[in-house]
Design goal:
Length: 154
Amino acid sequence: MRREQAANALVLVGAAGLIGGALLSQFVGGLFPCEMCYWQRWPHLAAIALGLLAWALGSNRALTALAAIAVLVSGAIGVFHAGVEYHWWEGLTTCTAAPVTGTTSEVLGSIMATPLIRCDAAQWTLFGISLAGYNAILSGLIGGGALWLLRKPR
């Protein structure tokens, strides 16, 4: 496998895995995302689209590099989000809530009973690291690894 193909595979599998994990934690684990969680998803979706386009065009180096940069952008947002969760700096002043459906009275009741999803409170941690922290770490490794594979050998 050529280095460009390996980089593209790393970006595609990595970004898809991180998006899959986020969706699994939301729909199976019941962890509803805050606004910054949603922000972290968009660059991964862009990376998947760019990676698929690069693959369809026969391993396009520039598109794969853009996909890797998109993954790094998600990681940078993850660093910011983790910093907000650990109260290293101030984050957003708005919050989001879980989606609601039903009749008007059901929606109103659901809105009143639904807690706000705070960006400054980690819903889940493992070894003291939140999901935003893991996204930052893994996105850095994936994006950095892909760019390292794309470098021109001496």
